[in-house]
Design goal:
145 residues; mainly alpha; 0% strand
Length: 145
């Protein structure tokens, strides 16, 4: 199961980083902000992104999972607030309001345990390598062209 734990940790870290990044070139700063918020060393997040470890410590995985859950909760609160404002402006019959309310209901169902984790572990899948365009060597190669 270490491979599954590594994949979960990478997925959590990737999601947190994607949500925190403010634009091109902000990856390292976003990683620092996520590390500070999740109470993890920056090096752990860096390693998960650029040099996958052979194993992930349980406290690192737990911290990433908790930070991910907090961020999802924050985003759902923001969505509920936006739905409330949009309902006041456009009325409850608006398609955007209906779609957002459906998304909130689905998220509430998932949190309530109606949609739980798979019963059997998923088979190991090779992780797709994402190109990192914010690396200094890549930027230097692009400037040289």
């Amino acid at each position: 199961m270490p491979d599954a734990d590594i994949a979960r940790a990478q997925d959590f870290a990737d999601d947190l980083l994607r949500w925190e990044t403010r634009g091109p070139g902000d990856t390292a700063n976003a990683m620092k902000r996520v590390a500070q918020r999740a109470a993890l060393p920056f090096s752990k997040l860096w390693a998960l992104r650029y040099r996958p470890p052979k194993a992930v410590a349980s406290h690192v995985l737990a911290a990433l999972e908790a930070a991910h859950a907090r961020e999802v909760e924050r985003q759902l609160r923001k969505l509920a607030h936006d739905v409330e404002i949009t309902t006041r402006l456009t009325g409850p019959a608006d398609p955007a309001v209906a779609a957002a309310q459906a998304a909130l209901r689905a998220a509430e169902g998932a949190r309530a345990g109606l949609v739980g984790p798979p019963l059997a572990p998923a088979p190991a899948v090779a992780r797709r390598v994402k190109p990192h365009f914010d690396l200094p060597l890549f930027q230097a190669a692009q400037q040289g062209e």
